[in-house]
Amino acid sequence: MPAKSKYPPIDIPNIGLWDFLFERKDRDFPDDKVIFADAVTNRSLTYANVKQTASDFGKGLRAVWDWQKGDVLGVYSANSIETPGVTWGCHFAGGIVSPANPGYTVHELAFQLKDSGAKALVTQMPQLEIALQACKIVGIPENRVILMGDARDKEGRFKHWTSVRNISGTQRYRRAKVDAANDLAFLVYSSGTTGKPKGVMLTHRNIVANTLMITAAEAPISGHAREGYPEGDSILAFLPFFHIYGLTVVLHQSFYRGVKTVVMAKFDIESWCACVQQHKITFAYVVPPVVLQLSKHPCVSKYDLSTVRMLNSGAAPLTKELVDALYERIKVPVKQGYGLSETSPTTHTQPWELWRSTIGAVGTMLPNQTAKYMSAEEKEVPVGEVGELWIKGPNIFKGYLNNAEGTKNALTDDGYFKTGDVGYQDGEGNFFITDRVKELIKYKGFQVPPAELEGLLVSHPKIDDVAVIGVYREEQATEVPLAYVKVRDGITASPSVEKEIMEWLAAKVANHKRLRGGVRFTDEIPKSASGKILRRLLKDKLKAEEEK
Ligand code: 4UW
């Protein structure tokens, strides 16, 4: 029998994100509450400011580019307090937002713009050059590149988003009508269980549902009007809004609940600590390598982090050693959450009160979901036995964009999503993730699709065949990508060839996809009869080599 959530079911209104965030009757915080504050400049926006700028930007999109329902807006930028206005402004105009990593190279960005069919791109000055080159490749005209942030181009060639939202005479534009269950709000990119990144189609209802599901699990305990915190909770948002964890859990959930959110564009441990101290941060969403730095880095002891009541870690496994080390050092508990781009993302989170008694669990299931662990033969396995996790609920994505086969492989006829993650449940409602059956590698919570790197590496003139696998590095609390390479006839494998390959790839991909695990040479890449790389054999081989 599939497991049911232990939370009582919640009502999920069939409304679009605009109505959900801006037209709700039960909002219990005022219009003039500061919601977003920039960690560096302290510039801030109230709830009313965000609503106004988003509706102005949405009207501007319709006035300037005749924005139509379903049009896709690319957003290629680091976190900014303006990202929310741009995002929800696009929804006002009936559009779909496709956020991209600001570290992407020209070709990575061009791939996403083309695949998603983006009609315009929002970016910031530091990314402008790459944005322009990518737009040129895919045919987005220069005048559809919109700048966000404070910096403007000196020649005034590019529209600034405030100019889009200040277009006069736009008041006549009304909000687009949204069919919440079918219309897309976001197209985020994930490689899923195999292959290259694919557009994950997330509907308005998916995000509304997940925001309410997370709130049901977190709000009763972390309510923003708690005693002892007269100004309420404040969250530190350094996880990127372009990744589903930052997008839903940090941005939508805290906005919906009216929690003040201090926005950081770039992470480094010292600024993070300084920001916690200055803004009296009470809660932060993190990834395991941040927990590691907090438990080890010398600078941490210089700051007062005592306002932090809890950290939430996810996107990659968190070890018991790290949880203990952090608590011992700064007395801050850390709990885990789990989810995927395809599940909007959160499916499980550890209840606050169980952070210590269920260390290692990714949590209990959020409301309105059912889940089961399945054998390789696709039979449900009993409680306590290991299998692949399948999940069903209102947060499950609609499918991969223009990829019927990928969608068919990921979703069953009766609505279950196959996560590609392996683990077990303990019979008391706690779920564990112990491994993956999918190819994906996670570097500090970011996706590294091995097939994408292999696709690039085989075109290197010295490489005959290649396979990329992930290897866990405890000292960094993350996996890193490592390539097994078979060199071409006549090429001698050597440290200089290794260096050449690593540098060659580094110039072509975003920083998080670099071969930090290095290159290992081999005479053969093991493959199945159908030509599939047998990664498990390579992982075993590596383990044996490292133990030597
Ligand atoms: N333990 C082990 C975990 C864990 C994990 C994720 O890039 P995506 O598609 O999405 C994410 C989502 C992270 C996230 C979701 C919900 C949530 O509450 C939270 O807060 C803590 C974080 O990263 O990658 C999905 C893949 O990432 C791995 C797993 O392999 C999954 O399929 N993953 N969380 N706690 N592995």
**Average pLDDT score:** 94
Put simply, the count of helices is 15
Oligomeric status = single chain
Bound compounds, please?
ligand 4UW
State the share of residues found in helices, binned by percent. Answer: 25-40%
Q: Output the strand order for the largest sheet.
A: 3-2-12-11-13-14-15-16-17
Shape verdict: globular
Distance between the termini: 45 Å
The proportion of residues in beta strands is 15-25%
**Unreliable residue runs:** 224-228
Sheet with most strands: 9 strands, mixed
Helix-and-strand structural type: alpha/beta
Radius of gyration: 23 Å
- The total beta strand count reads 27
Features:
nine-stranded mixed beta sheet, alpha/beta, 27 strands, 15 helices, 30% helix, single chain, 548 residues, globular, binds ligand 4UW, five-stranded antiparallel beta sheet, 24% strand
Descriptive account of the structure:
The longest helix has 19 residues, at 47-65. The radius of gyration is 23 Å and the shape is globular. Helices cover 30% and strands 24% of the residues. Helix 8 links the parallel strand 11 (234-237) and strand 12 (260-263). It has 15 helices and 27 strands. By secondary structure, the chain is α/β, with parallel strands linked by helices. Bound molecules: ligand 4UW. Ligand 4UW binds at residues 190, 244-245, 249, 312-317, 336-341, 345-346, 349, 362, 419-421, 433, 436, 442, 445, 447.
